[in-house]
Structure formats: C-alpha cells, structure tokens
C-alpha cells in the first residue's frame, strides 16, 4: 500500500486538529477571559461603529461604549443587589417549611405505595428502578 501525497496531507491535517484540540482542552480554564472578551467585542462593535460614524475616533467610541456599559452594570447591580438579598432572606425563612411539606408528601406517597395492591413482580421492578434512580442521584 503506497502513501499518496493527498493521504499524507489528510493525516497531517487530522493530527494537527487533534493536537490543537488537546492543547485547547488543556488550557481551557485560561481561555475563559478571552472568550468573554471576544463576546463583549462582538456585542459592542455595532455601538462603537455607530459612534465612529457620528465623528468620534475609534478609541473614543470604545471608551464611551465601555463607560456606558459598565455604568449601566454598576447602577443596575446597585439597584438589584438589595432586592436579591431580600429575596434570599425570604427564601431562607421559607425553606424549612418547604422541606417539611416535601417530606410530608414523600411520606404520603410511601404510605400509599406500601398499602397498594400492586402485583409482586411489578412492585419488585419498581423497587429496583427506584433504587437505581436513588443511586444515580447520589452520584451527583
């Protein structure tokens, strides 16, 4: 079997893609800031181009755009933060009652299941599946 030039080129391309994938996988945690930066640049480019058309320099348009975006984020966060804290406090107060309600419902379901007149084979199959689901849930 002879190796053709085309086959050799395909092998090098596949090896290069595999090496690139392995490299990107090994540095994936360090790539998050770059991914976020590219995403922000992509989203904010229309605003920068608009300001550029209105006569601002590119760097000035970028500065104004970022200043507006970060001001909105800071202002929105300062308004939203107290609301989130209030909601979390309310949730933490209501959580024990929610847990108790869920536990009562589970006990009712278990009681109804124990007192049901299901055929033995169906009950065994259900028990096995429930045990498998419980085991899968514990894996997380």
Word description of this protein:
The chain is mainly α and 140 residues long. 89% of the residues lie in helices and 0% in strands. The chain has four helices and no strands. The mean pLDDT is 91.
Give me the oligomer status. Answer: single chain
User: What characteristic shape results from the CA principal axes?
Assistant: flat
By DSSP, the count of extended strands is 0
Q: Please report the distance between the alpha carbons of the first and last residues.
A: 50 Å
Strand proportion, as a percent range, falls in under 5%
SSE-based structural type: mainly alpha
Short précis:
The protein is mainly α.
Give the key terms:
140 residues, mainly alpha
Topology:
Elements: H1 5-26, H2 28-53, H3 58-114, H4 120-139
